[in-house]
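Slide 14.
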Amino acid sequence: MQQKNAMQQPRIEKVTLNIGAGESGEKLVKAEKLLQKLSARKPVRTVSKRKVPTWNLRKGEPIGCKVTLRGKIADETLRRMLYAKDNKLTEDNFDKEGNMAFGIHEYIDIQGMKYDPDIGIFGLNVNATIEKPGYRVKRRRLHQAKVADKHKVTQSEAIEFMKEKFGVEIETES
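Slide 15: predicted structure.
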Protein backbone atom coordinates (compact mmCIF):
# COMPACT_ATOMS: atom_id res chain seq x y z
CA MET A 1 0.00 0.00 0.00
CA GLN A 2 2.97 2.28 -0.53
CA GLN A 3 1.54 5.56 -1.81
CA LYS A 4 3.55 7.83 -4.08
CA ASN A 5 2.46 10.89 -2.12
CA ALA A 6 3.79 10.97 1.45
CA MET A 7 0.68 12.88 2.56
CA GLN A 8 -1.48 9.90 1.55
CA GLN A 9 0.20 7.39 3.88
CA PRO A 10 -1.86 6.50 6.99
CA ARG A 11 -0.29 6.68 10.46
CA ILE A 12 -1.27 6.15 14.08
CA GLU A 13 -2.36 9.54 15.42
CA LYS A 14 -3.10 8.37 18.97
CA VAL A 15 -3.86 5.33 21.09
CA THR A 16 -6.31 5.63 23.97
CA LEU A 17 -6.45 3.08 26.80
CA ASN A 18 -9.73 3.15 28.72
CA ILE A 19 -11.03 1.34 31.80
CA GLY A 20 -14.64 1.74 32.84
CA ALA A 21 -14.69 0.92 36.55
CA GLY A 22 -18.41 1.71 36.87
CA GLU A 23 -17.99 3.31 40.27
CA SER A 24 -15.74 5.69 42.12
CA GLY A 25 -13.68 4.59 45.09
CA GLU A 26 -11.18 1.79 45.52
CA LYS A 27 -11.97 0.08 42.21
CA LEU A 28 -11.29 3.29 40.26
CA VAL A 29 -8.02 3.89 42.13
CA LYS A 30 -6.88 0.35 41.20
CA ALA A 31 -7.82 0.98 37.55
CA GLU A 32 -5.76 4.20 37.57
CA LYS A 33 -2.80 2.30 39.03
CA LEU A 34 -3.04 -0.24 36.22
CA LEU A 35 -3.12 2.42 33.49
CA GLN A 36 -0.16 4.17 35.12
CA LYS A 37 1.74 0.86 35.08
CA LEU A 38 0.85 0.15 31.42
CA SER A 39 1.66 3.56 30.00
CA ALA A 40 3.95 5.38 32.47
CA ARG A 41 1.54 8.33 32.15
CA LYS A 42 -0.93 9.79 34.63
CA PRO A 43 -4.50 8.74 33.71
CA VAL A 44 -7.43 11.15 33.54
CA ARG A 45 -10.73 10.33 35.23
CA THR A 46 -13.91 10.15 33.18
CA VAL A 47 -17.22 11.18 34.73
CA SER A 48 -20.80 10.06 34.18
CA LYS A 49 -22.83 12.27 31.88
CA ARG A 50 -26.22 11.54 33.38
CA LYS A 51 -27.94 10.25 36.50
CA VAL A 52 -28.86 6.54 36.51
CA PRO A 53 -30.65 5.72 39.80
CA THR A 54 -30.79 1.94 39.19
CA TRP A 55 -26.97 1.85 39.07
CA ASN A 56 -26.56 4.38 41.91
CA LEU A 57 -24.86 6.81 39.51
CA ARG A 58 -24.94 10.56 39.95
CA LYS A 59 -24.18 13.02 37.18
CA GLY A 60 -20.54 14.13 37.34
CA GLU A 61 -19.39 11.15 39.43
CA PRO A 62 -16.02 9.63 38.33
CA ILE A 63 -16.67 6.16 36.87
CA GLY A 64 -13.61 5.41 34.74
CA CYS A 65 -10.19 6.51 33.62
CA LYS A 66 -8.25 6.82 30.38
CA VAL A 67 -4.83 7.70 29.06
CA THR A 68 -3.94 8.97 25.59
CA LEU A 69 -0.60 8.12 23.98
CA ARG A 70 0.99 9.64 20.88
CA GLY A 71 4.15 9.12 18.85
CA LYS A 72 6.58 6.23 19.35
CA ILE A 73 5.10 5.32 22.74
CA ALA A 74 1.70 4.86 21.08
CA ASP A 75 3.19 2.48 18.48
CA GLU A 76 5.06 0.44 21.10
CA THR A 77 2.02 0.22 23.38
CA LEU A 78 -0.24 -0.79 20.49
CA ARG A 79 2.17 -3.61 19.59
CA ARG A 80 2.01 -4.89 23.19
CA MET A 81 -1.80 -4.69 23.21
CA LEU A 82 -2.05 -6.54 19.87
CA TYR A 83 0.20 -9.27 21.31
CA ALA A 84 -2.51 -9.87 23.93
CA LYS A 85 -4.95 -10.54 21.07
CA ASP A 86 -2.39 -12.81 19.27
CA ASN A 87 -2.14 -10.18 16.49
CA LYS A 88 -5.61 -11.17 15.28
CA LEU A 89 -8.51 -8.79 14.76
CA THR A 90 -11.78 -8.88 12.84
CA GLU A 91 -13.17 -6.40 10.33
CA ASP A 92 -15.69 -5.38 12.99
CA ASN A 93 -12.81 -3.86 14.99
CA PHE A 94 -12.49 -1.13 12.32
CA ASP A 95 -15.05 1.62 11.70
CA LYS A 96 -15.85 3.43 8.43
CA GLU A 97 -13.39 6.25 9.21
CA GLY A 98 -10.55 3.76 9.68
CA ASN A 99 -10.35 3.92 13.48
CA MET A 100 -9.73 0.70 15.35
CA ALA A 101 -10.98 -0.54 18.72
CA PHE A 102 -10.72 -3.80 20.63
CA GLY A 103 -10.94 -5.04 24.19
CA ILE A 104 -8.54 -7.03 26.35
CA HIS A 105 -10.26 -9.22 28.96
CA GLU A 106 -7.38 -9.41 31.46
CA TYR A 107 -4.29 -7.23 31.65
CA ILE A 108 -2.10 -10.25 32.44
CA ASP A 109 -2.40 -11.22 28.74
CA ILE A 110 -0.38 -8.11 27.80
CA GLN A 111 3.28 -8.69 27.02
CA GLY A 112 5.52 -7.88 30.00
CA MET A 113 2.69 -7.65 32.56
CA LYS A 114 2.41 -9.88 35.61
CA TYR A 115 -0.44 -10.27 38.05
CA ASP A 116 -0.40 -7.68 40.83
CA PRO A 117 -2.49 -8.61 43.90
CA ASP A 118 -2.86 -4.92 44.81
CA ILE A 119 -4.66 -4.28 41.51
CA GLY A 120 -6.61 -7.51 40.95
CA ILE A 121 -7.96 -8.43 37.52
CA PHE A 122 -9.08 -5.72 35.10
CA GLY A 123 -9.84 -5.58 31.41
CA LEU A 124 -9.45 -2.52 29.22
CA ASN A 125 -10.44 -1.03 25.88
CA VAL A 126 -7.84 0.00 23.31
CA ASN A 127 -8.76 2.59 20.67
CA ALA A 128 -6.41 3.64 17.89
CA THR A 129 -7.03 6.66 15.67
CA ILE A 130 -5.58 6.19 12.20
CA GLU A 131 -5.32 9.23 9.95
CA LYS A 132 -3.24 10.76 7.19
CA PRO A 133 -1.01 13.84 7.59
CA GLY A 134 -2.96 17.06 7.20
CA TYR A 135 -5.91 16.19 9.43
CA ARG A 136 -4.92 19.08 11.66
CA VAL A 137 -6.88 21.47 9.40
CA LYS A 138 -10.05 19.92 10.80
CA ARG A 139 -9.10 20.58 14.45
CA ARG A 140 -7.13 23.83 14.41
CA ARG A 141 -8.60 27.01 15.88
CA LEU A 142 -7.94 29.45 13.08
CA HIS A 143 -9.08 28.79 9.49
CA GLN A 144 -10.70 25.45 10.24
CA ALA A 145 -11.43 23.51 7.07
CA LYS A 146 -13.00 20.25 6.00
CA VAL A 147 -10.91 17.23 5.09
CA ALA A 148 -11.59 16.02 1.55
CA ASP A 149 -13.20 12.59 1.17
CA LYS A 150 -10.24 11.25 -0.81
CA HIS A 151 -7.94 12.22 2.09
CA LYS A 152 -9.98 10.37 4.74
CA VAL A 153 -8.86 6.91 5.81
CA THR A 154 -11.27 4.17 4.75
CA GLN A 155 -11.84 0.89 6.55
CA SER A 156 -9.94 -1.06 3.89
CA GLU A 157 -6.97 1.35 4.03
CA ALA A 158 -6.83 1.01 7.82
CA ILE A 159 -6.89 -2.79 7.59
CA GLU A 160 -4.07 -2.78 5.01
CA PHE A 161 -2.05 -0.36 7.16
CA MET A 162 -2.41 -2.59 10.23
CA LYS A 163 -1.44 -5.67 8.22
CA GLU A 164 1.71 -4.02 6.85
CA LYS A 165 2.94 -2.07 9.86
CA PHE A 166 1.90 -4.33 12.76
CA GLY A 167 1.55 -7.74 11.07
CA VAL A 168 -2.08 -8.08 12.12
CA GLU A 169 -4.13 -10.97 10.75
CA ILE A 170 -7.75 -10.19 9.92
CA GLU A 171 -10.11 -13.04 10.76
CA THR A 172 -13.42 -13.44 9.00
CA GLU A 173 -16.55 -14.06 11.02
CA SER A 174 -18.12 -17.40 10.14
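Speaker note: The mean pLDDT is 87.
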